[in-house]
Amino acid sequence: MIKNYLLCIVCVLISAKIFAQQESTSNAYLPEDIKAVEDYLEQINSDYIKRIKGDYASKVKKIFKDRDEKVVKSIKDSAYIFSSEIDGPFYKILENVYAANPEIDKTNYRFFINNSFIPNAACYGDGMFEVNLGLFNTFTSDDEVAFVICHEIAHKLLDHSLHHVTNAISKINSKETKEKVRHIKRQKYGQTRAALSVIDELNIDILDHSKEKEAEADSLGFILYSKTIYHKSKAISALEKLKVEDDMLLNHHVKVDSVFDFDSYPFKSYWLKETISIFDTEEKINEFELSSDTLKTHPEIEFRVNKLKDDFGVVNLDVAGTKDQMNFIKDVSHQKAIQSTIDRKLLDFAIYQLVEKFQNNRITASYYYHTMAEVIKQIYEAKRKHELGKYVPPKNNFSDEKHLNVIRLFLHNLELKETKKMGLAFCETHKESLKTSDSGIAIHEFFKSINQ
């Protein structure tokens, strides 16, 4: 029982670590031929696991097989974006990497764009890679994207995924771990604490092992990268931009009392009035927190940057880098990130992203007004159907995400009749922008009709 528990926990950690390292269609979240993609992924996964050997081969094969099935499920669950506006420019950068490194056998390589807002990328081991949408929102040059591509390809060439999983399974099934498990089973008290202690020991060993592998992937990745047309110094800036801490996420101050304050319908102070709860506490948690070092986007960045500088003499020069493809990707990636939250009905997060990106000049005023009007309409519909709670959790007094919490408090304090008045006030205030499109006119007419 305890052994199975350990195996389950470590498998989750492995997946988290590997994943953290992850309009030609009518549905941007599905490929044109989902069956062809399924068959392709199954084939490369099957080819990969056939060559897995060793004492725990069957256990390792099962993890990779399960991972493939989870990827297919994630595709069907709209975790990925299939957009020619992003795929086209991205694949041009990828082709530049391949052209400079003809020795790479790219036959079974496939890159997918994940809709996650965290700047990251991943190598799954069998030939599938993913790049998070957040990477494009964070990076400013083709060079930085190219280095991350080279880094992930290096993971594949070095077979790190297989080594990582095999190492973890070996640790779990080692004589030392088995003896510790037997000792825990014999304990009358403190079994849970003792089991967690064993898990911590395994975690430390696995994470230390990962740190070394990340540095190895940087080294080989830089060798691949140095053959390309891209500026060598941008490898350093790419790594530094991947260092994401908890306080760097969702830290924009969204002043809802200003955003939703209109001459025709002023903001009401009680929309931000809190209800005192017996569960109020000073202790905070962070719902979007990268819950452990395994999930943080590379906590070892400083070590890796210094190693790259020492081994290759790379200097982080203040150069702009190449932007041929990022100029195409940048604007649309911000819009896709927002649209993804709207499509998933994460209405509080949609408002946060809209305001943050608009105030930081990452989206146009026209896009902001049209999309915010649509979000307000969806909020009204959710309230009318008594479904807002399905999409927007209430303010969590245990949460450290204060800016998102303010938006949640505001949305839940709004009455249905107030939402429709606010929607009309927003549309009337920005009617000149909304009337430039049929959808904007339709939303304005909608709010006028329900306010009569």
From TrEMBL:
Residues 103-309 form the Peptidase M48 domain. GO terms for molecular function: metallopeptidase activity. Its cofactor is Zn(2+). InterPro entries: Mito/Outer_Membr_Metalloprot, Peptidase_M48. Gene3D superfamilies: Metalloproteases ('zincins'), catalytic domain. It holds the Pfam family Peptidase_M48. The keyword Zinc applies. Residues 1-20 form the signal peptide. Keywords: Hydrolase, Metal-binding, Metalloprotease, Protease, Signal, Zinc. Its EC number is 3.4.24.-. This is M48 family metalloprotease. It comes from Psychroserpens algicola.
